[in-house]
Amino acid sequence: MEPEQVPPAPRRPRTEARDLERYAALFAARTRQMRSSAMRNMMSIATRPEVISLAGGLPDTSTFPADLFEEIAAGIAADGLAGALQYGPTEGLDGLREAIPEVMAREGTGAEPEDVTVTTGGQQALDLVTRALVDPGDVLLCDAPTYPGALPTFAAYQADVIQVECDSEGMRTDLLEQTLTELEAGGKRPKFIYSVPTFQNPGGITLSLERRRQMVEIARRFEILVVEDNPYGLLRFEGDPLPSLYSIDGGGFVVYVGTFSKIVAAGLRLGWVVAPPPVRQKIVLGKQAADLCTSNLVQEFALRFLQSGRFDEYVDGLREVYRSRRDAMLGAIAEYFPHGADWSRPEGGLFVWATLPEVIDTGDLLAKALGENVAFVPGAEAFVDGRGTNSMRLNFSGVPEERIIEGVRRIGRLADRMLGLYETIANTAELPLPGGPVEKERRKAG
Ligand SMILES: Cc1ncc(COP(=O)(O)O)c(C=O)c1O
């Protein structure tokens, strides 16, 4: 029998400001602090083919071996389909929980499978850890600058974020200790220190061995946790690997967050968190509420990839690609960025952090750069306190070398023009001169 036809309800007009007012009373207080990530907002622009995007943190997925993809998919179809299409345990599939410590062991970090919780990307791990530990108004400490994508998570749980300055050796542990002492004197005990110690996003810097030891020692002394977020450790192009904070600590005060996004594929949305049992239990409860479990299909895919024996070869290939892209970017910055600019020289990872003369606001520069089809992340996105306005994060993993060079050239030219304009005004108004193109020409001329 044909179902009875019900005429569709008239289409409501799209949401307008008036409508928003109507919903306002319904929103939870926490939504007032929720902030959008600039990178997410920019995704729609940055993925246009004509745009050279140095904005995202996109890994290069073009080298993933298609034959292996087919083989794994066919293998799942042949002998694992029913399980792959089923719900799974909240903690993750046993096989993958056992394989993850083997991935961590490649950087010399030991972990127990029962301490591992598989998550829907590293981002969910950050969300679940924050959900488990943070009440509104609780203090969190993190690097300055920090991973821009962590800030919306911290804001969603109404955390009070304090950023501790970094230099070329990572977070300044003297300032960390000082901040904790001051907070303690004011009766405040932060919940955790969030750190990306290796090839940091966005700074490209790596926390030195001595500071790693100090950070763990400080966390123990003040009895707070460190959340170590390590998506990039395996992407080292040069230099000696450093022990993770987790391995220095032995897993008492450090919660370790990992992800397959940058070493297998971001589209899998697969990460993990290793935490001491009491914290892990709360994380698992949070994950039950969030999404019950991470996709079995995706976990099965990753497990078979790890078992294929081609994981190391794949990561080696990525390292090669990224090393030469980093070199292309550093070379182009040295050639095209104005005098007075400074930038990091990362030994691995995906990002360079560049700082321009103070008179350049990289938010304004971005608006101009988008007009010339280049995108980057303005530095202010990596801070909660208004710092970083003359800095920018540049990604070198997602774009081939010629496009990196062209993108940097366009940004450099725009920065030069902005400085030139400033110089003209400054000359008239007798303001101090930053290093700009006019000055550069003067210097060249001797
Ligand atoms: C430091 C850091 N943490 C977490 C993430 C999120 O990773 P995932 O793609 O696994 O959610 C990223 C992604 O760029 C990152 O750079």
Molecular structure report:
Helix content is 45%, strand content 13%. The chain is an alpha/beta fold. The chain has two domains: 38-57 and 314-444, Alpha-Beta Complex (Aspartate Aminotransferase, domain 1), CATH 3.90.1150.10; 83-307, Aspartate Aminotransferase, domain 2 (3-Layer(aba) Sandwich), CATH 3.40.640. It is globular and about 75 Å long. The termini are far apart. Pyridoxal-5'-phosphate (PLP) is lined by residues 57, 121-123, 147, 149, 196, 201, 229, 231, 259, 261, 266, 271.
Write the layout of secondary structure elements.
Layout: H1 17-24, H2 38-46, E1 52-53, H3 66-79, H4 81-84, H5 94-105, E2 116-119, H6 121-133, E3 139-144, H7 150-156, E4 160-167, E5 170-171, H8 173-185, E6 192-195, H9 209-222, E7 225-229, H10 245-249, E8 254-259, E9 271-274, H11 277-291, H12 296-307, H13 311-336, E10 342-343, E11 351-355, H14 362-371, E12 374-375, E13 377-378, E14 391-395, H15 401-429, H16 437-444
Parallel strand pairs: 1-12, 3-4, 3-6, 6-7, 7-8
Antiparallel strand pairs: 2-9, 4-5, 8-9, 10-11, 11-14, 13-14
Helix pairs in contact: 3-12, 6-11, 8-9, 13-15, 14-15
Provide a brief overview of the structure:
The chain has helices at residues 17-24, 38-46, 66-79, 81-84, 94-105, 121-133, 150-156, 173-185, 209-222, 245-249, 277-291, 296-307, 311-336, 362-371, 401-429, 437-444; strands at 52-53, 116-119, 139-144, 160-167, 170-171, 192-195, 225-229, 254-259, 271-274, 342-343, 351-355, 374-375, 377-378, 391-395. With 446 residues, the protein is of the alpha/beta class.
